[in-house]
């Protein structure tokens, strides 16, 4: 967050004193008014800490009070509250109370504005703030967080103890990592960005691809393309116990735009029965024929030899599921061609030798550590999928997913989809990011609010392509 603070200092140096806070307060009050629907006669409670977030909330509260709202500011540290903001609130008819006297006001509130802690907050909330957060959670009031919910760590998306659960977060200038990455993202509710004139950071910590970005990256055949120029992806997956994993990985590869798919493994009969266009080999990956990328691991069981043979190939490799467990770390680290690893939280925890809860609580740190340890690009699956490049730089975050994707075989489809994009020539970072984006959209189209299986998700990948290209 130091880049954000530096940008704010640079902007404040060019503006009249207090102008930046007034811009933030104007955007915040407008969002609060929209959420309330009717401002006149509404009851608004401001939770005020000692930082600039408290000042933003006080000035916004003053604007609402001038429009007829009854506004009460709960001051956690009265002597450190933003003096000018508090004076503005009182001139507009607002009142202030101590935390111990705030229970009745909070209980009757239509709207609570969280201005307790800003982007510098670390290590959880103090006990007096925790008590206020608990009181707010017991009400039916709508909750608006200023910049980010208090208790959420802006840099990492980690939540240490109690935190405000907002219906709406109004953030200023730029999105903070904690608003995009779980577990913090679920505390933010709907996020609205207010432009206050900040220059975007030259080197962001996170990036989120949009439709236009994905459309630019999607491989499309040219007039002279043939099945080989479009990319051939090899799939070494499945076993006698898990033949369906091979079928689903192949389906993801076909719908990911591959010109051809070569399959190697014990599930050839099941694969051919479903997809007669697949090229099948029983001679192992090294003798299966030319490919531009390999996918290995889904449903592989204990077939470490095949995984090792794929890792020895001099083409990009996507490593998933059982392949993550079977792969030799040094073999992955020593590869010259790109490697894309696609673990979920449990698999990532096993690779790092930590508890699953540790990965789930610090997803951004975990994906960066895995990428560094394995010298590979890592796609950490979850409600917000993260993709970290082996070379470092900004982590890509994808939020197109849906909880309906938490179904058996969904990851196998994602593996095939990612492998086809690698075979088409995308970098591991772009292949992982685009695959996650399309996979999430496909999951939404397949579910439409109702249960959907992995096969349904694969069938909807072409619809996701069309949605991106036609936008």
TrEMBL record:
Reaction catalysis annotation: (6R)-NADPHX = (6S)-NADPHX; (6S)-NADHX + ADP = AMP + phosphate + NADH + H(+); (6R)-NADHX = (6S)-NADHX; (6S)-NADPHX + ADP = AMP + phosphate + NADPH + H(+)
Domain YjeF N-terminal intervals: 4-204
Cofactor(s) the protein requires to work: Mg(2+); K(+)
Keyword NADP listed: yes
Record-listed E.C. numbers: 4.2.1.136, 5.1.99.6
Cofactor-binding details, from the entry: Binds 1 potassium ion per subunit.
Annotated binding of (6S)-NADPHX, by residue: 52-56, 118-124, 147, 245, 299, 344, 412
Record carries keyword Lipoprotein: no
CDD domains registered for this protein in UniProt: YXKO-related
GO annotation, biological process: metabolite repair; nicotinamide nucleotide metabolic process
Residues annotated for K(+) binding in this entry: 53, 114, 150
PANTHER family, sorted: ATP-DEPENDENT (S)-NAD(P)H-HYDRATE DEHYDRATASE, ATP-DEPENDENT (S)-NAD(P)H-HYDRATE DEHYDRATASE FAMILY MEMBER
Oligomer status and interactors: Homotetramer.
Family: Belongs to the NnrD/CARKD family. In the N-terminal section; belongs to the NnrE/AIBP family.
Main function: Catalyzes the dehydration of the S-form of NAD(P)HX at the expense of ADP, which is converted to AMP. Together with NAD(P)HX epimerase, which catalyzes the epimerization of the S- and R-forms, the enzyme allows the repair of both epimers of NAD(P)HX, a damaged form of NAD(P)H that is a result of enzymatic or heat-dependent hydration.
Protein name: Bifunctional NAD(P)H-hydrate repair enzyme
Taxonomic source organism: Streptomyces griseofuscus
Gene name linked to the record: nnrE
